[in-house]
Amino acid sequence: MIRLLSVAVAAAVLLTAPAFAQETRSFTDDLGRTVDIPVEPLRIVALHDLSITVPMIELGVMPIGSHGRTTAENTPFIRSSKVLTGVDFDNSDIQFVGNLPADVEAVAALEPDLILTTPWQTAPVEQLQAIAPTVVLDDSVRGAFGTFDVLAELTGTEDRLAVLKTRYEGQIAQIKRLIDTDSISVSVIQANEGKLYIEHTYGTLGKVLRDAGFTFPALVEEIPESQSAEFSAERLPEFDADFVFATYRTDTLQTPADAVAALEEALPGYCEYLHACRENQLLVIPREEASSASFYALGALTYMIISHISGRDFVPMP
């Protein structure tokens, strides 16, 4: 059953609305909704930690509230943020407003002048819109880093974004100068419950690899852009490459051993089926940096690739 706003909160929203009257403009979000939003929003609530909150912090804008996750001890955290930005609930003024669905009453209590959400977030848009102008951003349409463009537009931080993009362009140029990427194949494999989860472009890691000009297995290229697919473990050899990447979740305290165990569970003796593994060219890295929409992560991954591949004698795929 959809939970309705309490009478008290609904009344509070109505009573406080005039205090936040601002100059507005029309904006069309990714659901095709036209929303009147503040020209200069001051109190933003972000309802997806990875795709909205972390990018906002990197743009220099602190939301007043954010979606987040909780530990086994029920301690809230912004996924990946402490590693990527140094900011979390425990060292900032950002208030935790729940996970999935977000707590609509907690959002209302913060008296936002703009709410940013995603199709993934199950807090009803119509309830959020009753609190403050609500914009739905879909990174499956824009791409993770395309969302940065609209966030910069909404928050007036285009200059900051331009600096971040210039730095990344320099990092990619450095990879291309040091590595003959056109002649090296790469692949990113994630084993999940006995199957292989493969993305056309695996998050931030995939963006760096594609922007740098590495090549991918044919089966990866058959997956439509911005989409993923699951495959039976027996197809693992079709994802082999000169260098293969696997990831593990540091936010749930996993280690590289967990990524290896997942591959072994999917296909016992998996290493003998992968050239990259047999030749010690399987690289197991944290998923937080590999998948997060973060310019810091882009930089960390460019240097990881340079340190592991440039100047290295490796065994190419036969």
UniProtKB/TrEMBL annotation:
Q: Where is the signal peptide?
A: 1-21
Query: What's an example GO cellular component term for this entry?
Result: outer membrane-bounded periplasmic space
- The UniProt record lists the Fe/B12 periplasmic-binding domain at 44-313
UniProt subcellular location: Cell envelope
Record-linked InterPro entries:
ABC_transptr_periplasmic_BD (IPR002491), Bact_iron-sidero_bind (IPR051313)
- GO process terms (BP): iron coordination entity transport
Sorted alphabetically, which keywords does the UniProt record give? Ion transport, Iron, Iron transport, Signal, Transport
Q: Which family does it belong to?
A: Belongs to the bacterial solute-binding protein 8 family.
What is this protein's name? Answer: ABC transporter substrate-binding protein
What species is given as this protein's source? Devosia sediminis
